[in-house]
Structure formats: C-alpha cells, structure tokens
Automatic annotation (TrEMBL):
PANTHER family: RRNA-PROCESSING PROTEIN UTP23 HOMOLOG. It holds the Pfam family UTP23_sensor. Keywords: Nucleus, Ribosome biogenesis, rRNA processing. It is found in: Nucleus, Nucleolus. This is rRNA-processing protein UTP23 homolog. The keyword Ligase does not apply.
Length: 259
C-alpha cells in the first residue's frame, strides 16, 4: 500500500474515532455486490481489508444478504461462498427477510449507533450511507479497497459536536465560578476587558533631547563631562605643583621687599 493511501486511511478513521466513537476492531458490514467484485477481481477480501486498515477487523454480513444471493442462483455461487466466510450478524429480520440493501440500511438506521463500516459496490446504498452521519463507506476500486472521504453530513455533525462541547465547557466554567462564590465567598468576577493602548511614542525609538549648557558652567567645568550634571555647580579645585607654588611665593616676597 502506498504511503499516501495509508495516511488517507489513518486520517479518515481517526476522524471517525474522534467524532463518532469508532474503536478497533472495526465492524465491517459486507454485502453481496462487494463479494461479486472481489470474485471478479480475484481479491482476497479478509486479507486485503486487514492490510488496508492495518488493524483487527470484524468482517460481518447478514442473513438477508446471504438469502438474497441464494435466490439469485448458481450465477453468484462464487460470490456466495466468499460471503459465507464472514460472520453472520443478527439483523432482526430472521423471521421476515428483506432485501440486502434495505437490511444494511436498517443496520445503520439514523445515526449508525453500532458504528459499522458499510462495504458495498452498490451506488444507491452508498448514497444512503452518506446521508447517515458517522458512516464510513468502503468499496473496491478496480482491485484495491478504498475508503470514501467522510461525507458532508458526517463533517457537519462533527463540527456541530465540537461547537456544543466548547459551549458546554464554557457553561461548566461559569457554574464552577458561581459555586466558588457561593460556597467560599470568593470573588472570582471577571475583570472587564481593557484594551491595552500605547501611551506615547516608544522612548527607545526617540532621539534624546539635547541639554542646554550655559557659558559659565562651561568655563568653570573645563574638561568636565556633560554626562555628570550634578558636578556642574561645584568649583573644581585645581592642584598647583609644589615648585610652581614656591616660585610664586618667592616672586611675591621679592615684590614685597622692593615695595
Ligand atoms: Zn436483515
């Protein structure tokens, strides 16, 4: 089996598992038309289907299907012998058999509660099965088993189920909040939603304002860095070297004596 085909089967069956409660071993209801196609294509049904689904299966047919084939006579003897390989499932028409298609239709009824996979080559039965949500449909395409894409009805019901489960979850949360409030006196009221808005331009994206420097400060703070504004008001103490001070002192003394 091709990888794409394998993925397709897994995807479709996981859809039915998640939305309609299908479980392994899957129950496959097989009718006479599929057995006839299998005979013509020389397909070993049980072997091929297990290979196709890659899991355990319950291959079933009904008494109505077998009786209908028996009525058709020797022309379908080969197909009948294939059909008789499968387990005969109770259909409720044991006393009054009906046609095979009507029998399988009644088995899936309104919502396919027993989760059957319908295996048929009959286009009208496939059409009926499509209308029943949660019914996988299988047929033989040339010689290989093929699972139909989930029908629109199945997809619609699955979508509806998801929607209601989300809504019920919401209701449960609301009820829990009320119980908490009543029993524990906890205030679990939701805060009103407040949209967060930008309060101003992003400071990181703005250019810094240039600070005005007065001339006096610039004179006093010669060489002082502009990044230290607290130092601007301080007078800077200038250290004079010892030999310069001595020179200055000696000059002052000379000027005093000359006076
Ligand atoms: Zn029946």
């Amino acid at each position: 089996m091709k990888i794409t085909q394998k993925r397709k089967v897994n995807r479709y069956m996981s859809f039915f598992r998640n939305n309609f409660g299908f479980r392994v071993p899957y129950q496959v209801l097989i009718d006479g038309t599929l057995c006839l196609a299998a005979l013509e294509g020389q397909v070993r049904v049980s072997e091929q289907l297990i290979k196709y689904f890659q899991c355990e299966l319950k291959l079933l047919t009904t008494q109505c299907v077998i009786l209908e084939m028996e009525k058709l006579g020797s022309t379908v003897n080969g197909a009948l012998s294939i059909c008789k390989q499968f387990a005969v499932h109770k259909c409720g028409h044991e006393k009054k058999p009906i046609t095979a298609s009507k029998c399988l239709e009644s088995m899936i009824a309104e919502n396919n509660a027993n989760r059957y996979i319908i295996a048929t080559q009959d286009p009208s039965l496939r059409e009926i099965a499509r209308a029943v949500p949660g019914t996988p449909i299988l047929y033989l395409h040339i010689r290989s088993p093929t699972l139909e894409k989930p029908s629109q009805q199945s997809n619609e019901l699955a979508g509806l189920n998801i929607k209601t489960s989300i809504q019920s979850q919401g209701c449960t949360m609301e009820r829990l909040r009320l119980i908490k409030k009543q029993e524990l006196g906890l205030i679990t009221e939701k805060k009103p939603f407040k949209r967060r808005r930008a309060k101003g331009p992003n400071p990181l994206s703005c250019k810094k304002k240039k600070k005005k420097t007065c001339i006096r400060e610039s004179v006093v703070n010669v060489g002082a860095s502009s990044s230290h504004p607290q130092r601007t008001n301080r007078r800077r103490r200038v250290k004079i070297a010892l030999h310069i001070r001595q020179e200055l002192a000696s000059r002052l003394n000379v000027s005093k004596t000359s006076d």
